[in-house]
Write a structure and sequence with these properties.
The structure holds two protein chains of two kinds. Chain A is 79% helix and 2% strand. Chain A contains 14 helices and three strands. The N and C termini of chain A lie far apart (50 Å). The radius of gyration of chain B is 24 Å and the shape is globular. In chain B, a hairpin with a 4-residue loop joins strand 3 and strand 4. In chain B, helix 2 packs antiparallel against helix 15 and helix 11 runs antiparallel to helix 13. Chain B is 69% helix and 7% strand. Chain B has 15 helices and nine strands. The chains are: A mainly alpha, B mainly alpha. At the A-B interface, helix 3, helix 4, helix 5, helix 12 and helix 14 of A face helix 2, helix 3, strand 2, helix 15 and strand 9 of B. Strand 3 of chain A pairs antiparallel with strand 9 of chain B, so a sheet runs across the interface.
């Protein structure tokens, strides 16, 4: 394993962590449109909190996919062809969600509820199946000697992956609630905080079940005991910290901690996988390894140079965009897409 | 049905649908940026209304373009996993660059542009739309770098059963890329300006009261669009011509098919305006020929023989063999599809160039006759749909003409497909995508039609009241 291979494994993890931190609250806000807002005005208010930024956040997922293709083509090929129908569902969710913003803005009043529903449903589908995919992946999937995965229904859907999917839905929903609390003014902000305060109790139950399943269903504890425990403690610790902040009304901190919970989850997955990228349930000799799944050194060098130059720029203008939209949303937007 | 056919069908369907919206949004973003530049330069509020009005049409196309683009990216891994394994070392990098250098810019600045009309200064707001336009142009560059490699592989070597990149510089200086990028981008800018000219014509055709100001905005839109249509149609045709000459050398099979040349011609090759080929017997019927024209088009001189598909097929059988990785090879490409696609594409391109010249003459100051004749407006209006036909035809030529290869001369389509994906999965995804695309297209058209009931004058702009979240100790 070369330095660059490890670096790119970490970078793929960073991209997914960035995706869950940023797009995570988008999905939460999307789901909150149907579960938190009472009327069309409040729904507009909620949607507007993410209107200008969701598109940029979703690019983290596209970049993670593209970077995986470029730096670990064997991983990309096995994962994407193996999770065919799951990815189809994720894409379906992303599509109905992605068009709903603009279509809603351009639709007559009586059609807006339909696009609100599509936004919520699309967000829910996408994030639930992403959870199912990642969690079933760390349990191990039937990957053969050629790196091809031929899985059955119960390889994808089992107690572990379903709990993982639900937990991810809950985590992103809470992250979204914290974001709404921070970004809105008026009753919706208070309601979002009340929801979050109550839901964190449910999350703790989910986290305990998830941790138990993780310890029994994966080899993480055997392979990386210390890192696994550290990540698990971080996940619970950040959840508790976020929860406490919702009570003391430290809205910015609550949001930061709920984001860090998601980051810790990604860290748990990537630490546990190392030095593998995919785990074969048939035989550990069929595991896809960082060393053999990666691109050539030359490609990794080119990619590293580009990333070192571009990522600071991306972060700079992303932060700048958030700074421009730093104000709280008080009243629903009126008009046509502006 | 086998997985290769289904995967190919899906690729064709997704690419065509995606490519309805890509040139649409690249082109309209650019034209909208020009409109806003005119507003900033002149301070004329008509240009601001114009920018906002047409900007919404651009935003609709962008939304659909983005979501179908995600399918494209995932599709390589889902349907073509062996291709991804073989080519990932080279193909993935441009794709990752597209995300890093283009998608982030596009999506961040489009958000900024949409929501900051009253928040930032005019100059900064203009900068946002130009960044969006730059993002769309950069995005096309990187994805076409990947496509150009598939058409004309350069800067690679085969190691351990897969292609590895040895020269990144060669990848982005690929001669194929120069022609392809130029042709696609000018075509996209032509698409954007044609659509705006056409939609403005539709607006003027409606039998209802239009305010004087809205009418002036439509007139200005048409005038600007004609100027751009003229420039970009000439550039598109010019680049297309260069690309065809390049094809004569690099992909003779594709070229021969676009001209329906089955048997190698004599020194003075005639050009068929129309022809009907029987792909089984290789008979060419009903052709109307212009003497020497094909030699002129191919070599820019009156003499020069053009190789026929039969001869090229024999050469390729000799070079690559009749079997690759257990698959029986056939190097013929669908000749009728390519022949007619080329004629539709080039025909409409020429028509757009002519219409833009006539349009410019008929809309010049003091002689605005175009607006007085309904039939003239109808011609412009109907041409709204021409770019979609042209763009689709262009891709049919490019991608069908590349068969049976995914990477020309290196890796075949049959080798590329995912071995572990079932026919049932592919069938499911094809049906899902087909339904989604149909529904999205219907909604998109309905929303544009609905939107066009408004006039630029009606576009209001109300911003929400804002308060600072950091004022009360959030941290």
């Amino acid at each position: 394993m070369s330095f660059l291979q490890i670096l790119w494994f970490v970078l793929i993890g960073v991209l997914f962590a960035g995706f869950f931190f940023l797009d995570g609250f988008d999905y939460g806000v999307g789901m909150a449109v149907e579960t938190l807002a009472y009327n069309e005005k409040e729904k507009s208010q909620v949607i507007e909190t993410i209107g200008p930024v969701w598109d940029g956040n979703e690019v983290w997922l596209i970049t993670a996919g593209g970077a995986m293709f470029a730096s670990f083509p064997y991983w990309y090929a096995t994962l994407f062809s193996g999770y065919y129908l799951i990815l189809l569902l994720i894409l379906f969710g992303l599509i109905i969600r992605g068009v709903s913003f603009e279509f809603r803005a351009q639709s007559p009043e009586y059609r807006k509820p339909f696009w609100d529903a599509m936004l919520a449903l699309g967000s829910l589908i996408a994030v639930f199946f992403l959870g199912v995919m990642f969690i079933s992946m760390i349990k191990g999937m039937p990957i053969d000697a050629n790196g091809n995965m031929k899985a059955q229904f119960f390889d994808y859907f089992n107690w572990f992956s379903i709990v993982g999917g639900v937990a991810l839905v809950l985590l992103t929903y809470l992250h979204g609630l914290n974001y709404i609390t921070l970004k809105t003014k008026g009753p919706i902000s208070d309601r979002a905080r009340n929801y979050a305060q109550a839901l964190y109790w449910v999350l703790y139950v989910g986290e305990v079940i998830f941790a138990l399943l993780l310890l029994f269903q994966t080899d993480f504890l055997r392979v990386h005991p210390i890192l696994t425990w550290v990540c698990l403690i971080l996940i619970v610790g950040f959840s508790v910290a976020a929860h406490i902040c919702t009570f003391s009304d430290k809205q910015g901190l609550a949001f930061t901690f709920s984001g860090l919970t998601l980051v810790s989850l990604v860290a748990l997955i990537f630490c546990g996988l190392f030095p593998r990228v995919m785990i074969s349930s048939i035989s550990s000799s069929y595991d896809l390894m960082i060393q053999s799944a990666s691109s050539s050194n030359y490609t990794l060098v080119i990619m590293t140079i580009a990333t070192v130059i571009l990522v600071p720029c991306i972060l700079a203008y992303t932060i700048w965009a958030y700074w421009i939209f730093r104000k709280r949303i008080e009243m629903p937007r009126v008009g046509d897409g502006y | 049905m086998n997985i290769v056919d289904l995967a190919r069908f899906q690729f064709a369907m997704t690419t065509i649908f995606h490519f309805f919206f890509v040139p649409f949004s690249i082109g309209t973003a650019f034209v909208v940026a020009i409109m806003e530049s005119m507003y900033v330069k002149t301070g004329n509020s008509q240009y601001k209304k114009m920018t906002k009005f047409w900007g919404n049409v651009f935003l609709l196309s962008f939304a659909v373009g983005v979501v179908t683009g995600i399918i494209q990216e995932f599709q390589f891994g889902m349907n073509w996993s062996d291709y991804s394994r073989f080519m990932g070392d080279i193909f993935g990098a441009p794709l990752a660059f597209e995300a890093l250098l283009a998608f982030f810019i596009e999506s961040t600045f489009i958000g900024l542009w949409m929501f900051t009309w009253n928040k930032v200064g005019k100059g900064l707001h203009l900068f946002f739309i130009w960044m969006v336009s730059f993002g769309t142009l950069a995005s096309a560059f990187w994805i076409l770098t990947a496509n150009a490699f598939m058409q004309h592989p350069v800067g690679y070597s085969i190691k351990g059963g897969r292609a590895v990149m040895v020269n990144f510089g060669a990848l982005i200086t690929n001669p194929q890329l120069g022609f392809e990028y130029g042709h696609v981008i000018f075509g996209a800018l032509l698409t954007g300006s044609t659509i705006f000219a056409g939609l403005a014509a539709f607006q003027l055709l409606k039998k209802r009261a239009i305010s004087k100001e809205s009418k002036q905005i439509y007139h200005k839109t048409m005038r600007l669009s004609f100027v751009l249509m003229f420039i970009f149609s000439i550039l598109t045709i010019g680049l297309g011509d260069l690309q065809m000459q390049y094809l004569v050398k690099e992909q003779p099979m594709k070229f021969a098919a676009t001209e329906a040349v089955m048997k190698t011609t004599g020194e003075r090759a005639p050009w068929s305006v129309i022809a009907f080929v029987n792909p089984k017997t290789h008979e060419v019927k009903g052709n109307i020929d212009i003497p020497d024209m094909l030699s002129i088009l191919s070599y820019h001189k009156t003499t020069g023989s053009v190789k026929g598909m039969e001869e090229i097929n024999k050469e390729m059988e000799k070079k690559y063999g009749t079997r690759i990785a257990g698959h029986k090879m056939n190097y013929y490409v669908p000749v009728n599809t390519l022949f007619w696609s080329f004629r539709f594409m080039a025909g409409f391109g020429t028509l757009l160039a002519l219409v833009s010249i006539v349009g410019l003459i008929m809309t010049r100051k003091g002689h605005e006759t175009l607006y007085k004749h309904r039939w003239c407006l109808w011609v412009v209006a109907i041409l709204t749909f021409a770019p979609f036909i042209m763009n689709t035809c262009g891709w049919l030529i490019t991608e069908f003409g590349r068969q049976p290869w995914t990477v020309y001369g290196v890796f075949t389509t049959a080798q590329s497909v995912s071995p572990n994906v079932s026919v049932a999965s592919l069938l499911t995804s094809n049906i899902v995508y087909f339904c989604l695309f149909t529904i999205l297209a219907i909604i998109m058209i309905a929303l544009v039609v609905r939107y066009l009931r408004k006039d630029p004058d009606d576009i209001e702009n109300q911003e929400p009241k804002l308060a600072d979240p950091f004022a009360k100790g959030a941290f």
